[in-house]
Amino acid sequence: MSTLPDVKLAEKRMEAARKALFAYLELPKQQEIDVKLRSHLAENLQRATDEYVELIESLEPAVKTTH
Fold it and tell me: pTM of the prediction?
């Protein structure tokens, strides 16, 4: 089971991978696209997203305490 801190870290990795891919895609059009780099960045985003989803699915339920 994952914890909320695990999920938060995975979310940060996913966001960093997304930003890296979009930063590359927003380069000026006069530059030639490096297909390998673009694919690598997209794969990194896919892996980070998959990890995030897996952690969400296995998130431990919060324990309610009554006072």
Answer: 0.82
* Spatial separation of the C-alpha atoms in residues 22 and 18, rounded to whole Å: 6
Say which amino acid occupies 45: L
Q: 56-65: list long-range contacts, CB under 8 Å, 24+ apart.
A: 56/2, 56/7, 58/1, 58/2, 59/1, 59/2, 59/3, 59/4, 59/7, 60/1, 60/2, 60/3
Angle at 48 between CA 39 and CA 44, to 5 degrees: 20
Q: For the segment 44-55, what is each residue's pLDDT rounded down to a tens digit?
A: 999 999 999 999
